[in-house]
Amino acid sequence: MSELWSVRVAARQEGTLELEVRQTHPDAGPFPESAVFAWRLWYDGAKDGSALHEALSHEDLYDEELMAAHVADYVAGVRVEVERPTLDMGGVQEALRRSGVAEEDLEKAYDRELSSAQATVAGLAKYTVTAAEARWTAGLTKGRLWDSAGYFDPPALFDVTVKKRAGQSVDLQVRQRHIDAPRFEENALFAARLLLEGPAQDADGAPDFAEIQDDAFMAAHVAEYVAGASVAVVRPPLNMAALRELRRRGVEAPFHPDGDTAGAAIYTVTLASAAWLEKLPEGDTWSVRYRPGLFSPRP
After folding, report:
1. CA 79, 256, 46 angle in degrees (round to 5)?
2. Chain centroid, CA 287 distance in Å
3. Cα-based distances in Å from 206 to 193, 226, 279
4. pLDDT score for 173
5. In angstroms, rounded to a whole number, what is the distance separating the alpha carbons of residues 189 and 149?
6. Among candidates 157, 183, 189, which has minimal Cα distance to 236?
7. For residues 9 and 250, what is the distance between their CA atoms, to the nearest angstrom?
8. Which residues make beta-bridge pairs with 268?
9. CA gap 280, 61 in Å, rounded
10. Burial of 5 (0-12, 13-18, 19+ CB in 10 A)
11. How far apart are CA 102 and CA 222, in angstroms?
12. CA angle 136, 11, 38 (to 5 degrees)
């Protein structure tokens, strides 16, 4: 697996790491705000024989179901501050041109995969990661530097099912699929994003993925898709803090998307146009996958 990121421990306190994460490959993709992604970065920097390596194998790290169930045992919180967004292949070449690299030198510069010569071009972010227990950070001393594939397959955050249609309204059953799922919000913007990640994305006039993630665009256009929305929360999404609190009380409640701890809600959404109903037959189901910036981060 290609290395995508260079990671350095910029600072540390007991149980908390400040990681400087730099893009080293144009296929890296955006910086995820996911606890699982941060966990994978930090695992790659831990030393053989460390408590973290004794607890988990490298193969475990890419078991999405295991990660979702147990990430709260290792990660208490993650905050991400992006200084420079990541660049894809075309963006890298354009940035190199703007930085003064001659056209005949572009290929050579590109082949260095955003190494130190492109320090002002590559994506750069700070991840402040708090461990659930200080022992998981053993050996990750200030200044430690490593490369990481940091593989991140965007998980499904929610499963959405059309339960009922009436007039221009639909009832959507929304069920949490991942520990990184955001809270249920009672507003038209959240409801529109649930709809537009599903079959409604194929309707005439539907925004593309980049527009769905653009808060300013959605705020200006949401009334074209959704006339109103209300939510009845059956169970709030289970986050890492809630999972740790249950375990502190002696309640074994590992997160599982089909278990009775997963968040669930019914959204009643009034569509701005009856034409959208054609794309939403009763019983239709889709998944809303993780995309950086799609929903507001957890408080």
Report:
1. 45
2. 14
3. 11, 12, 11
4. 95
5. 34
6. 183
7. 34
8. 171, 230
9. 37
10. buried
11. 44
12. 50
Residues of the chain with pLDDT under 70: 1-2, 26-27, 88-93, 106-120, 151-155, 240-248, 250-259, 290-293, 296-299
Instruction: List beta partners, residue 172.
Output: 162, 267
Q: Six-digit token pair at 25?
A: 């490959």
Task: Give residue-wise pLDDT tens across range 250-274.
Answer: 666 556 666 677 889 999 999 988 8
Whole-number Cα distances in Å, 108 to 2, 64, 155, 193: 19, 37, 35, 41
The single-letter DSSP state of residue 259 is S
| DSSP states of 52-106 | HHHH--TTGGG-HHHHHHHGGGTEEEEEEEEEE----HHHHHHHHHHTT--GGGH
User: Does an H or E element contain 147, and which?
Assistant: strand 145-148
Sequence letter at residue 216: A
Phi, psi (degrees; rounded to nearest 5) at 91: -65, -35
Q: What are the pLDDT digits (tens) for 94-124? A: 777 777 877 777 666 665 545 544 566 778 9
Helices (H), the chain: 35-45, 51-55, 64-70, 89-98, 106-111, 188-196, 209-212, 215-221, 240-248
CA gap 74, 94 in Å, rounded = 40
pLDDT for position 115: 52
120 and 99 Cβ atoms separated by less than 8 Å: yes
Residue 95: phi and psi, rounded to 5, are -65, -40
How far is Cα 176 from Cα 196, in angstroms, rounded to an integer?
A: 17
Q: Please check whether residue 115 is in contact with residue 24, taking contact to mean a CB–CB distance below 8 angstroms.
A: yes
> What is the model's pLDDT at position 117?
43
